[in-house]
Amino acid sequence: QVHLQESGPGLVKPSETLSLTCAVSGYSINNGYFWGWIRQPPGKGLEWIGCIYHSGSTSYNPSLRSRVTMLADTSKNHFSLKLNSVTAADTAVYYCVRFEGYSSSWSGDGFFDYWGQGILVTISS
Amino acid sequence: QSVLTQPPSVSAAPGQKVTISCSGSSSNIGNNYVSWYQQLPGTAPKLLIYDNNKRPSGIPDRFSGSKSGTSATLGITGLQTGDEADYYCGTWDSSLSGVEFGGGTRLTVL
């Protein structure tokens, strides 16, 4: 069974960088699939942040692209998210996910079949 | 404001059937697969339907999905109190170059 677990600081100061890691167990990220992040502000809906393939190729939400970096570490079987210059609007529960697409190249057509439990990150001084 | 429109809430009695709509356009639903996610209170979303109408292993056949043109529909029959949750549709939007979700629909089982 695939299991994803987010980790990282629960509190980040405005203008600083949010950094999260997702540890994957039950599946080697080197074997395929895209891996990504989705966030949910308190009381609001889901927002896709982006996805990464084990090779390092990425696709980001255009509205966040200038602030987002995702990396995959196949030796540790985990992947990470960095979001810089954060503001209160970035306060959300952040979920790491596995994305099943239809080819090894990104098309965006697919679905999120495994989700982590989520981690609340609050942006506040 | 999401490009996928869902009703904010729906409700029905236990044992009844309910449908949740997801309306989009040719740049999203019209030309891409739709998936649906169930988010029970205080938990992470869970995949309910993928490829418009397929159920992952373990999802009961009380849940169904369909798509017609630029709209998709999630159907739930034999409603149970345990079905009370927020439901989200999702798909790729080729104009926005991003994965998009509907605003979510809260299901209340009266």
Shape, principal axes of CA atoms of chain B: globular
Task: State the end-to-end CA separation of chain B.
Answer: 29 Å
Rg of chain B over CA atoms, rounded to whole Å, is 13 Å
Strand content of chain B: 35-45%
Q: Pairing-aware structural class of the strands and helices of chain B?
A: mainly beta
For the secondary structure, the number of strands of chain A is 11
State the end-to-end CA separation of chain A. 39 Å
Per DSSP, the total helix count of chain A is 0
Low-pLDDT runs of chain B: none
Task: Tell me the series of helices and strands of chain A, N- to C-terminal.
Answer: EEEEEEEEEEE
- Residues in β-strands, percent of chain A: over 45%
Helix/sheet category of chain A: mainly beta
> Residue share in helices of chain A?
under 10%
Give the tally of β-strands of chain B: 9
* Oligomer type: heterodimer
Global shape of chain A: globular
N-to-C SSE series of chain B?
EEEEEEEEE
Instruction: Output mean pLDDT of chain B.
Output: 97
Describe the 3D structure.
The complex is a heterodimer of chains A (125) and B (110). Chain A has 125 residues and is an all-beta fold. Chain A has strands spanning 3-7, 11-12, 18-25, 34-40, 47-53, 58-60, 68-73, 78-83, 92-101, 110-115, 119-123. Chain B has no helices and nine strands. In chain B, strand 7 (85-93) and strand 8 form a beta hairpin. The N and C termini of chain B lie far apart (29 Å). Chain B has strands spanning 9-12, 18-23, 35-39, 46-49, 63-68, 71-76, 85-93, 98-101, 105-109. The chains are: A mainly beta (125), B mainly beta (110). The interface between A and B is medium-sized, with 21 and 27 residues.
